[in-house]
Amino acid sequence: MPRRAISSTLESVCIVSNHAPDEVLELVGLLEARGVDVDIIGIQGTPERVTPEVLGRYSAVITIGKTVQYCLAGGVPVYCYDRFSGPGWITPAIVAQASERNFSGRCTPVKKSASQIVDELIRGYRSVLEQSEVLKNIASERYSLKNNVAKLIETFDRLPMCVTISETEIEVLSRDSETFCSQRNVIRNYQEVVKNSELRLSHLAKSEHEKEIKMNEISKALADREAQIDLVTSTLADFEDKIARLTSVLGSREMDVESFNMILANREEKNVATSAAVMEVTDQIILDRYITQKESQISIFSKVLSEREAEVARLNQELSLLRQELKQSLESSKSNASSTDDRLAELERCLALSREELEAVLNSNSWKITSPVRRLTTKFSLKIAYLKLLARNSVFVLRQEGLSAFVRRAGSFLVRRRQRKIASSALERFSRERDVLGANPAPLVSFVIPIYDRVDVLRVTVNSALAQTQQVFEVILVTDGSPAQTMAVVEEFRNNPLVRIFSFPTSSGNAVRGRNKGILEAKGKYIAFLDSDDIAAPDRLEVCLPILESGVDVVYGGWRALLDGSREIDGLVNGQEVFSPDCDLSMLEKVCVPCQSTVMVRREVLLNTGFLKHKMEYREDHELWLRLAYNGAKFKSVPHVLTDLRLHAGNNELNFKDNDGHWETLLKEEYRRKGPVPKKIAFLLAGLGISGGAAVVLKHVSLLIEEGHDAFVIDLGGYGDIQWFGNPAIRVYTINDIYQCGVDNIDMLFATFWTTVEWLEKIQAKRKLYLVQSDERLFYDDYLLKERVEQTYKKDIEYVGIAQWIVDFLRLEFGHSPVYLPNGLDPALFYPDSPLQEKNPTRLRVLIEGPISVPFKGMADAYAAVSGLDCDLWIVSSDGMPEPHWQHERFFQKVKQEDMRRIYSSCDILLKMSKIESFAYPPLEAMACGCTVVIMDVNGGIEYAVDGVNVLKIGKGDIQGARQAVKSLLDDDSLRNKLRQAGFDTVQNWTWDPAKKVLAELTSS
């Protein structure tokens, strides 16, 4: 390969790709800014045939696939990267692994930014250049056409010349089928059912308006009656409280009597003991008279005797007084008991009169007339509480951001509030219509078409499905991170009533996710697979449905090859028709018989045996046919062309052909194991702003997506995005496009904040759950708001708590049996990293973190605690700005998760003075990045924090205590290092593995 003089520095780069991802296109400007010339060969740049001479003009090449082999053979340093990512510089250490994946991004599916790629290109070029001769020798050995052809000829020499064909494989010679003739009436009968159902629907629609009017009248009457019942219940409760208090007084008097009896008994015991002592003294005096030598002692005993007699007289007097007091107390108790009985009788009489008066009031015209006013008063009180909360937030925004920002936020708030009302009304209408239309039969067949980057051929494909002679179907289009031009074509079919569209924001790399999504969403009894560049025959359903209705589970047939000249296949010409024989398990173990775009499958069989497997990046359809046969599914081939199959150089299967043996081995290991049956799981978020609660929800969504479930978020707030979280694969549906997620077949619907709980009743789901992340009553001072929050803990739904103390209060206070779903920390996201600014060992750095706009997060207290200390201060706030008088070195607002790691790594101490926490992520994140932590005792709980072991903990609101704690860490290196190490050790026990296990149990129950 002719080349220009080799330079040890990177001078020129060539990007060879027809579908270069955005980050690769961004390289052009970055490299040219460093003095590196960049050319693009492909449809995004200059279309040009790639030859050794062309490649030899450049210092390095960025490409994938076959072009990598050309570069290796020519000694040109090559960087492998595509839309799935890639291994980067091809070196002798990774060439074998990359070659197994045909030098594609699937080797290492971790996306990189343009700046990361530029750094790797500059830093790694010289090293790769030095190894180019070694790579050239490897390429000569692996990719030499002469050597490979010689090996192929040698293999063919060992193969037999003749092969015996079984009767099953020859069955395609006959097309007449009794099944076809006997089952044609199935479709006609089905159409009659549809016509009759539509007639019944028209009658139902006429009466629907009258039913709605009657329901409104009934609802109004029920509301009036409920208000009356509430008032009577309240009055009765007041009287019951009075009776309970009187009963308590009576019980207290009886206890006094019992206590007096005990005192009297003790006094009598003392009397007996005293009498016995007197007798002993008398005996001693008589004895002493006979002993003359004890005369001196007699006088002493005499004195003692006189004292005892005086004591006895005093005790007798006390006893007499006590008896008199007891008698008076008993008479008083009897009098009180009699008085209490009289009082109870009087209260019962008053209660009866009150009930009569209450009945008269409730039945009076004035009460009925004023009923709306009372309801308005109750409602108005709650609205006042909301308005107070809004007013406090408004004052904060006005003070910090000014009038224009306040007007903008207020307008946005009102628009979002209106959108929520419209969506709520639409959901209620949808629910009513669904009930009315319940008798409408579902489509018999669901076409499933996964899509990545087709345009013109996509229109042809979709229209071929819509043009079926038997109109008993729906068409499901599933896009997979598709480019804008493809999405524009898909949107052309948005308003077609036979078409439903579902979209994923990022590409998964193959069609497995798209097909599984289609199967999950399908309403049809049968699934008809169709790739986005193939064409269904107009009579495909007409031919296949009778066989499926006769009891067969899988039907497939012939296909016609459409070759565009970009791909050559031995023995196949354009327009050639290919027919597949009947097959069974033993045949499928040897070869993949059905062509996927001709296959129709009974959906129930897929639900029982599982959908396609994500680990099967190639041969996924073959593994599915094997698994279905292994589980007893009945296969049948029809000798009829069902699909025109496009074969071209862009077919995804070509990316895996070089490692076909690996996938063949894997499918034989997998087909005996049940496939996945993903659940459709939605999480309701009150807003998408940066918060620990939102981060936990998005992490659970990510974990469920990793397990193959169809998990997504419904945003009820209507503002913000989740770019800060760092997972672009998460789908977010707003109030305006909620119907695009398909709200009629959700398996699990999670509320995540008390304001989202009411939507559990508005959106249909098989299971409804509340992911409780705090006792949210603590967030408010107004008792009406606290009471409103409390009502959300009394629902007949499933409860899940993210901390043990939350599980406990839900169980003890509300009688639930909540599931404990523990939080965790991602070690790939939080670890000691290079600081944004180098630390100063002589002047330590303190970080305070939290939304300044939320008072209970304690940012003002935290600043007061560290103000004036001999340290640098950094501040991070997800919402709100530091006050003008706050002295600080750096301020960060609305920081992405991935960027927080470097901020933590730049600081020595984190001070967190939040008053309310359910788990508190920032202290744990800071520990993972090497910070020492000071926290405040909170309302709620922080499970991992142990005072004096891995944190310093101060009392609630103790600003001076926080100041002393931070100062002690600034002054005492050994204490700070001890806590830092203990904190780092703590983090190792808080992974997401336990949460994954709980989620698996939740989704499988």
Tell me what you see in this structure.
The structure is a single chain. The protein is of the alpha/beta class and 1005 residues long. It has five domains: 145 residues, Glycogen Phosphorylase B (Rossmann fold), CATH 3.40.50; 154 residues; 230 residues, Spore Coat Polysaccharide Biosynthesis Protein SpsA, Chain A (Alpha-Beta Complex); 141 residues, Rossmann fold (3-Layer(aba) Sandwich); 145 residues, Rossmann fold. Helix content is 50%, strand content 14%. Strands 6, 7, 8, 9, 10, 11, 12, 13 and 14 form a nine-stranded mixed sheet that branches. Strand 15, helix 22 and strand 16 form a beta-alpha-beta unit. Helix 4 packs across helix 7 and helix 27 packs across helix 29. It is globular. The two termini are 63 Å apart. GO terms for molecular function: hexosyltransferase activity.
* Total number of domains: 5
Structural class: alpha/beta
Named at the architecture level, the CATH assignment of the largest domain is Alpha-Beta Complex
Rg measurement, Å: 41 Å
Number of helices: 30
Shape descriptor: globular
**What is the CATH topology assignment of the largest domain?**
Spore Coat Polysaccharide Biosynthesis Protein SpsA, Chain A
CATH class of the largest domain: Alpha Beta
Distance between the termini: 63 Å
Helix content: 40-55%
- The portion of residues forming beta strands comes to 5-15%
Number of strands: 29
> What is the typical, i.e. mean, pLDDT?
81
Largest sheet: 9 strands, mixed
What is the CATH superfamily label of the largest domain?
Spore Coat Polysaccharide Biosynthesis Protein SpsA, Chain A
Q: Which parts are unreliable, with pLDDT below 50 for 5 consecutive residues or more?
A: 168-183, 274-283
